[in-house]
Amino acid sequence: MKNINWGKYSKPIILVVFIILLSILRPKAFLSLNNFSNVLWSVSVIGIMVSGTIFVFLIGGIDLSIATLCAFSAVVVVEVTHYLGDTPKAVAIGVAAALAVGLLAGLLHGIIITTFHIPAFLVTFATQSIFLGLAMVFTNNKIVSCTVPAFTAIGSRKILGFPMPVYFMIVIAVISWFVLRKTVFGRYVYAVGGNETAAAISGINTRRSAIMCYMISGLTTALGGIVLASMTQQASSSTGAGYTNDVITAGVIGGVSLLGGEGTVTGAIFGAVLMGLLNNGLNLLSVPSTHAGLVKGLVIIVAVAFDAMQHADQSRKKVKKVKKAQA
Amino acid sequence: MKKKVLAILMTAVMVLGMTSIASAARRDEAAEAAAPAGGNSNKVRVDPYAGDEVKIAYIAHDIGTPNNQGWKEGIERECASWSNIKVDSYGAEESAEKQVQIMTDCINQGYNAIILQCSDGTALAPSVKQAEEAGIPVITVNLDCSSSTIHSALVMAVDYDAGRMAAEKMAEQLGEEGQIAIIQGVPGLARTDNLEQGFRDTIANYSGIEIVDAQSASFQKDAAMTVMNSFLQSYPDLKGVFAINDAMAEGAALAAESANKKGEICIWGADGEKDALAMIESGDMAGTIYTNSWDEGSTAAKIALLMIGSEYDYTCLTQTPKVIMEPIVVTAENVDTIAEEDRW
């Protein structure tokens, strides 16, 4: 019993504590399949995005263009669908076009960052306004709505009580987990993020790895944009506003280091779900919006501190062990 | 080499500086020559309808929203027939600081008039004063700058009364009883705060209706869906929702539809944008308070042109004159009376 590694379980523990707390406070409203479906649905777009953007975080990069690339891809899928006559086939082509835009955007980021050695912060800061500009130009700065059933199904069709975006999130997260944990490329990503020079010396093509990471991030961001447009049945230059912060916050809450080399997809999804539960809890408890921000900030600090403490404990134990062995 | 480049740059800067001083001096001379009797001496009277070159700046809080686009198009349409009238539009990306910066730039560029949607009345007040003092009439749209700053005109949609009208009609639709909730925007904006107050004050007259909750969705459609989901979860008997703007009402309607409660909950918005009117037609939404944004923009432009072409300016005023746009209560019964060409 003594050997149970509590640090490993600190994240699930936080979630369970949260769920128990809310169940006691609002048993009727909170404890239902429907509400869990709502919580997962509300974080699904963040979850989809962070599952890809984590690759960029892991190599020590950052992507500030998430929100506007999301808007641009949302605009592309809706405009292409309209242009091709609002048929299910048009929707499919629109989705493909938007995903291609995401991949291209990632490729562009990767090439610029690795070729000119400009910090990712600057490059994505610049492209952020380029994507916003493109979204504005393509829509003539208006909201374009799209109520084609084949398109709205992406965001609202329900299977077994859960809407499609929840399944997207789970599938993307599992793929991302698999790539990071079980493939050579995944190891390269952690290696490059941990120590780029060492990785290069040991024969890893760091440049190619970095470009791949940005492409993955672009792809999931575009997918997030498509899902968001489908959920709201419209696209505009302000689709996804605020998502850059949300995605980065979800990652950081989940223990992803912005310096690179550290973090897991499960952690990032935990971060997203924790934020969703928090918002849901605040709503269900009818906390007025004037107080919501205050409570949210405090709870995040407590949760992250608890998580960090467990990890610190772990490393302290390791040090003790090594010292014992030395003695 | 570096020194040479530096020298060239310095010269360029100096020359530019001189010319701008010279042009400012010329403007002052022109201003003196055209000084009207009694008014502010900085204002240059030009006649937009007689072919004089005129440029108007439109500065929005966030140029992407349907409302802002409606105003922009209204202003542009109003001026389109005169090739000598130029309209430039700027968006402040929802930041009062950026808007102050844009105001300063526009004053320096010598626009003849500025049409402004104040992001923050207090923050923008000094800029508005500065513009008026420089002889540039400022016409505010919907969001006034702080009341002590007198400027050329304010064109606004009703706020408090729009809340009252929505409440009265909603109460009628609900048979004057049931639980309702409010979806709020960002607190602190005069228009939406007044709208909510008008709604609450009126609902208080109906003892059978209870406002059970109020949550913010920051004017966003997707955030409103999340808030609506939690309302449906917490209040199974919820009968009505009032959203402070149409985008959030649309989000609430989508959430209700996804929970198989389409049409069962009386969802109201405010603004009257195209998509909301379509949702009233399809039975997803119960109503909205419609204001013709195109008309509102074109009214602001007309006032701007009147001010540019006249001698009088803000110094003649003891308070900011107002034009209030006609509000129309739209429900399924009369939605067809809003013509396609009036849907922005």
Question: Which topology of chain A does CATH recognise?
Answer: ABC transporter involved in vitamin B12 uptake, BtuC
Question: Unreliable segments of chain B (pLDDT under 50, ≥5 consecutive)?
Answer: 29-38
CATH superfamily of the largest domain in chain B: Response regulator
**SSE sequence of chain A, one letter per element:** HHHHHHEHEEHHHHEHHH
Low-confidence residue ranges of chain A: none
Most residues in contact, chain pair and counts: A-B, 37 and 29 residues
**Average pLDDT across residues of chain B?**
87
Q: Kindly state the number of beta strands of chain B.
A: 12
Distinctive features:
heterodimer, A: 327 residues, mainly alpha, two-stranded antiparallel ribbon, 14 helices, 4 strands, B: 344 residues, alpha/beta, Rossmann fold, 2 domains, four-stranded parallel β-sheet, 44% helix
Description:
The complex is a heterodimer of chains A (327) and B (344). Chain A contains 14 helices and four strands. Chain A is an all-alpha fold and 327 residues long. Chain A has one domain (6-319): ABC transporter involved in vitamin B12 uptake, BtuC, CATH 1.10.3470. In chain A, α4 (66-83) runs antiparallel to α5, α7 (149-156) crosses α11 and α9 (184-194) crosses α11. Chain A is globular and about 75 Å long. The two termini of chain A are 26 Å apart. The model of chain A has no long low-confidence stretch (mean pLDDT 90). Chain B folds into two domains: 2-157 and 292-326, 3-Layer(aba) Sandwich (Rossmann fold), CATH 3.40.50.2300; 160-290, 3-Layer(aba) Sandwich (Rossmann fold), CATH 3.40.50. In chain B, the strands form three sheets. Chain B has a six-stranded parallel beta sheet, sandwiched between helices. A four-stranded parallel beta sheet of chain B has the order 7-6-8-9, with helices on both faces. The longest helix of chain B is centred in the first third of the chain and has 32 residues, at 2-33. With 344 residues, chain B is α/β, with parallel strands linked by helices.
